[in-house]
């Protein structure tokens, strides 16, 4: 159930998905910048960080 919540958060709000799984740090900031500049790379990065 926890992975499902992280997956949904990673698709809808990628920085939230990263923060739920990895916490607030460098990975979160990279994802935040990717999401603010280009949404799709932010989603791909969140899925990569959380599930691969």
Question: Which key phrases capture this entry?
Answer:
52 residues, mainly alpha, globular, membrane, transmembrane helix, transmembrane, PMP3, YqaE/Pmp3 family membrane protein
Describe this structure in words.
- By secondary structure, this protein is mainly alpha-helical.
- The protein has one domain (2-51).
- The protein is 87% helix and 0% strand.
- It has helices at 2-12, 14-22, 26-37, 39-51.
- The radius of gyration is 9 Å and the shape is globular.
- It starts with a helix and ends with a helix.
- The model has no long low-confidence stretch (mean pLDDT 94).
Write the layout of secondary structure elements.
Blueprint: H1 2-12, H2 14-22, H3 26-37, H4 39-51
Helix pairs in contact: 1-2, 1-4, 2-3, 2-4, 3-4
Uncertain stretches of 5 or more adjacent residues? none
Distance from N terminus to C terminus (CA atoms, Å) equals 18 Å
Order of helices and strands: HHHH
Give the number of DSSP strands: 0
Helix content: over 70%
- The shape is globular
Radius of gyration, whole Å: 9 Å
Mean residue pLDDT: 94
Q: What's the number of domains?
A: 1
Q: Structural class from helices and strands?
A: mainly alpha
Strand content: under 5%
Question: What profile does the largest beta sheet have?
Answer: none
Distinct helical segment count: 4
Short characterization:
Helices cover 87% and strands 0% of the residues.
């Amino acid at each position: 159930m926890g992975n499902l919540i992280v997956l949904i958060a990673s698709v809808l709000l990628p920085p939230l998905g990263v923060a739920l799984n990895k916490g607030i740090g460098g990975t979160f900031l990279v994802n935040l910048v990717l999401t603010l500049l280009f949404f799709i790379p932010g989603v791909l990065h969140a899925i990569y960080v959380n599930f691969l």
